[in-house]
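Lay summary. Proteins are chains of building blocks that fold into shapes, and those shapes determine what they do. In this project we predict the shape from the chain. Here is one chain we studied, written as its sequence of building blocks.
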Amino acid sequence: MTIAPDLPATDARIGTDCGCPEMRGLSRRGVLQGAGLAGLTYAVGSTVVSMSPAAAAGTASSMGTNTIVVLSLRGAADGLSLVVPHADPAYYASRPTIAIPKASLLAADSAFGLHPNLAPLLPLWNAGKLAAVHATGLAVANRSHFSAMEELEDADPGSKLRVGWLNRLLGTDDQTSPLQGLAVGDITTQFYGPQPVMSFSSLEEAEIAGDDKWDPTHQRVRSLHKAWDASKSPMAAAFRSTMAAVDGLAPAKAQADTSAAFPDTDLGRALASVSRTVRGKVGVGVVTVDQGDWDMHTDLGTLTRGRMIDNVTDLAGSIAAFFADLGPLADSVTLVTISEFGRRVVENSNAGLDHGWGNVMFLAGAGVKGGTYYGTWPGLKNSLDADLTVTTDYRSVLAEIVRTRTSASLATVFPGFTPTPIGAMRSS
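And here is the predicted shape, written in a compact code that computers can read:
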């Protein structure tokens, strides 16, 4: 039995101020809303597990003890503000009010520099554990948020199968844990498919509905066991997997709650839950987290005000707190950022940026050859419809992480694709 609903017509991952007709009227919360998922679904409280009819089981894992965290910047972040091409004169000519002065940039080399509000990430950069790959994205421009998200997360152009690249990565495992794939917030397209995936809004809320202080003798859970334990139906299998996943989170919940050390934002709270789960050593191999509201058609702002500085401050503070909180386990966690597309080169009349093409991706943590900028710079044009041209297919970045941090087959995870070597990751 398979349920594969389309993405909802309204998607709570993107903000209300984007100016896009397809995005109007949506919540700005960013990461803690529900979404459709593929596979048989069993929902208990805020916990959701998607189950295939025959979930994998075994003793081997292509992930080993490594964890990959995919942080999606929903709404199409402006990579030219995050990593500024200060040596390209078209950048300053095309952005008379929102360009970031060269003198304010961090970690500047002869071509690029970081947005100054990324300062919390400088220790990672200087330690060689943070890198940026510029001019990345889809091979062909796609300026529709939902269509681009799905194309990006399927990572299998031309396929009629609705299976995300992370679900295919999980499919290379004989999984030892129902927590191998974890979405903190929405289960998005990259996890769609037959492999089981768990989702929760926060670690504390990952529980069986009704199994709380109002039912101290656990009668509700006993009733569920009575109804499903002896059944061979797919729903019974989903229930058992859900119970195993919730029970399996006990070591994570036993870890110290350090959320006060993170920004008090959706992203900060989500990464606090991820860190606590990883510290619990419960078998998580792949995690997805969203940060929404990057669709800045208006009021992108300057270095003293506007929407960009708020998002960049949240992004940098949350990632820095995450790696600090992991302690020694930071050596087993690799984080990558991704966004569905970038923004136009030229600012619009509302001091914002319209939908573009190329973008930047950050890599942080284990295996990263950091402290430098990667990619092939195509140059910018100061013309109305100019884009940052994509010179590195985003799949090449993801493939390098998969190749160096897992034993999975790239041909399975990215069918029909031959990656271009980037050199941003060390082999395990």
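What the prediction tells us: Residues 1-17, 24-60 have pLDDT under 50 and may be disordered.
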